[in-house]
Specification:
With about 425 residues, the protein is of the alpha/beta class. Helices cover about 35% and strands about 20% of the residues. The chain folds into 2 domains: about 290 residues, 3-Layer(aba) Sandwich (Aminopeptidase), CATH 3.40.630.10; about 120 residues, Alpha-Beta Plaits, CATH 3.30.70.360. The structure holds glyoxylic acid (GLV) and manganese (II) ion (MN) (2 copies).
């Protein structure tokens, strides 16, 4: 282990962030734009400044800590992840990656390493789904995959303009033309695995080769509101009964052999008017499918749509389907992956290569720079829940590997190659 990596510093910072947005009903609730998001951002700003890095916030509200390079190189070596959480989430998803990244750069700085390239830690805005219906908001704005101009009139479910929330965190949709993703030479996102493969294999670190695609539809089933006592069973158009059918169709679809490489979830549902003595008139829900194979993802979505249409028509329930996300799987840079594999081996560890079934900002960064991901063991593979946990020593190993990888990239890109893709 490198002398400088300080496991207790990472651990302390994890605990500082874990207290922000701690939900009295369990876990951490720190969505984009919330009071907790603002407090967590301020805590990160203070840590970045204390680490001796230059602090900036870009127009997408992404937070940056930069250690300037010592010569003419302007392209950044960027590492980082996100700070926002899901409702009742854990302390490691996103935050661990930001803090491991900060530790790697701070250690390079403290041990007197004279970097050629500017080294940057980034915390992207709003990676998780939020009330604006826009996950990976900061990385999608940064990489141009979302158009800021198209979002000027965009509101949250409760009617708050996106621009107001973005201004609150230091961004501004009107200035997004200042975002410059071509400044990035390479991006590496360290992240907790959120699955149990590393834990099962008793390995602390993995290297990611591919990130899942994600497809989400907002579905509305509309029946007829009526009296729960007086409406005869044969006369009902009960939207919640129809929803039960919709769930069971979904489960059957995902159990079919051809759907082997797919997972699906219906995790968000609203029933109207949601009263004891009224036949439900409407159900809104989000169907999510994930696959590392784009064809399978689309075939699954199409089959479900066809079956839902047939079943709802039999029940005389109106169906409306609105696609809200169609994100293709992405393959990460083989050059960055090979380098990470070498660095894991150099730490006398077996580099297990895995696909990520969670979405990440790295998905979008692949479009602008060679991108890689380092996974850190999640104990019992738990995530998006309060029990999420990764050991301090595993986080420290990840920081050490990242530290060595950044140093290597800084030197090799200086000596032999204009960009990482040609390594
Ligand atoms: C992000 O956490 C996702 O995979 O939904
Ligand atoms: Mn997450
Ligand atoms: Mn995450």
């Amino acid at each position: 282990m490198q002398l400088g990596i300080d496991a207790s510093r990472i651990h302390r910072r994890i605990h500082v962030l874990a207290a922000i947005g701690a939900d009295p009903t369990g876990g951490i609730t720190r969505p984009f734009g919330s009071e907790a998001d603002l407090v967590a951002r301020e805590a990160l700003r203070q840590e970045i400044v204390a680490a001796g890095l230059n602090y900036r916030v870009d127009a997408a509200g992404n937070q940056w800590g930069i250690l300037p390079g010592r010569d003419s190189h302007t392209k950044l070596l960027v590492v980082g992840s996100h700070l926002d959480t899901v409702p009742h989430g854990g302390a490691y998803d996103g935050a661990a990656g930001v803090l491991v990244s900060l530790e790697a750069i701070q250690t390079l700085h403290e041990t007197g390493y004279r970097n050629h390239h500017p080294l940057a830690v980034v915390a992207f805005t709003g990676e998780e789904p939020n009330s604006f219906g826009l996950s990976t908001l900061g990385s999608r704005l940064y990489t141009g995959r979302l158009s800021a101009a198209d979002l000027l009139e965009h509101h949250s479910a409760s009617g708050e303009p996106l621009q107001d929330a973005l201004v609150r965190v230091g961004g501004d949709l009107r200035s997004c033309d200042t975002l410059n993703p071509s400044e990035v030479a390479v991006f590496i996102e360290p992240h907790v695995e959120q699955s149990g493969r590393l834990d099962d294999a008793n390995l602390p670190i993995g290297v990611v080769d591919r990130i899942t695609g994600i497809y989400r539809d907002h579905v509305t089933l509309t029946g007829e509101q009526n009296h729960a006592g007086t409406t005869r069973m044969g006369d009902r158009k009960d939207a919640l009964d129809a929803f039960a059918d919709a769930i069971s169709l979904f489960e059957t679809l995902l159990q079919m052999p051809w759907a082997d490489w797919m997972v699906g979830t219906i995790g968000q549902v609203q029933v109207y008017p949601n009263a004891i003595n009224i036949v439900p008139s409407r159900v809104d829900f989000i169907v999510e499918l994930r696959s590392t194979d784009l064809e399978q993802l689309h075939a699954g979505a199409q089959r479900y749509h066809q079956q839902l249409t047939a079943h709802m028509s039999q029940r005389h329930i109106a169906l409306s389907v609105d696609n809200i996300l169609d994100q293709a799987p992405e393959t990460l840079s083989p050059a960055v992956r090979n380098l990470l594999v070498q660095q894991v081996r150099a730490h006398h560890l077996t580099p297990l290569t895995v696909a990520s079934w969670a979405g990440h900002d790295a998905t979008h960064m692949t479009r602008v720079a060679p991108t890689g991901m380092l996974f850190i063991r999640s104990i019992h593979g738990k995530s998006h829940c309060p029990d999420e946990y990764s050991r301090p020593e595993d986080l420290a190993v990840a920081a050490d590997i990242l530290h060595d990888t950044m140093k290597h990239l800084d030197q090799v890109l200086e000596e032999v190659a204009p960009d990482v893709a040609s390594l």
